[in-house]
Amino acid sequence: MHAIKKLTATTSLASAAFVLAAAPALAEIDLPRVSQKASIAQTVGTTKIEIVYCRPGVKGRAIWGGLVPYNEVWRTGANEATTISFSDPVTIEDTTLPAGTYSLATIPTTGDWTVIFNKEKDLWGMYEYKQEQDALRIKVKQQPAALTEWMMFSFPNVTPDSTDVALTWEKVRVGFTVKVDSNGITLAKARSAVSGAAADDFQTPYRAANYCLQNDLNTDEAARWLEKSIGIKPTFGNLGAKARYLAKKGDLKGAIETAAKAIEVGKAADPKTDTAALEKLIAEWKAKK
């Protein structure tokens, strides 16, 4: 009897294995979404801002207060939670948000909306949303807009230090401003790059210094970077930059001498070097002496 039970158990296991082996492997099918996935990015200075979302359509439906209830947290799109990413720290409504990715939710109302930046980014909709994970909440005004069938984000009004972020759907538009300390971020990156540059790298300190001098940023440190670049290899570029720096500091004699040296070095390296702009500056500086 024991042998029969053992045989039956063995047969059952074999049958199960046969069934599993015979079952066809399920192929993955990438099916189109009703609300297509989209992403949009904008660089401010060197800071990248990116929004990833899914775009629902109006399709003749009542959106606000209907498909999208008032006074409830909305995923601000369809499917997964909409996310917004910052490659560097940014400022929104006088609050600094660290670099990273946040879910971007809203609370639509008949008046001002609430925009929510939440630390939990891997959410399906807002079903597991936790307010205690909010990094920031701001109030924004809604504005009337032309009919927009498919929900969209955009970056209007870009400046070197800021951009507006706008959400438009149906006949409503809301937005907020993201500010970036472009010069501060660039200066920190420049310092790191110069300190880590190879001993024979004259380009990195020159590029860092030139950016600072062109933007009147940290000019004394920039001057030291120029000297470092020139000490490695004098070029038309770094000598010309030093000449402009000296002129700005009021040392016209030193500016003229350095500019003449820059032209000499540039022509020696390449006779076709365009020195016209620097020659014009020399003439202007001589006229002021």
Strand/helix succession: HEEEEEEEEEEHHHHHH
Euclidean distance between termini CA atoms: 118 Å
Q: Mind describing the biggest β-sheet?
A: 6 strands, antiparallel
Instruction: State the strand order across the main sheet.
Output: 1-2-3-6-7-8
Low-confidence stretches: 1-20
Shape: elongated
Overall radius of gyration:
31 Å
Q: How many H/I helical runs?
A: 7
Mean pLDDT comes to: 90
The overall strand count is: 10
Structural class: alpha+beta
Beta fraction of the residues?
25-35%
How many domains? The number is 2
User: What's the assembly state of these chains?
Assistant: single chain
How do you describe this structure in short?
The protein has 289 residues and is α+β, with helices and mostly antiparallel strands. Helices cover 36% and strands 27% of the residues. The strands form 3 sheets. The chain has a 6-stranded antiparallel β-sheet with strand order 1-2-3-6-7-8, with no helix packed on it. It has a two-stranded antiparallel sheet with strand order 4-5. Strands 9-10 form a two-stranded antiparallel ribbon.
Question: What does this protein look like?
Answer:
With 289 residues, the protein is α+β, with helices and mostly antiparallel strands. It is built from seven helices and ten strands. α2 runs antiparallel to α3, α3 packs antiparallel against α4 and α3 runs parallel beside α5.
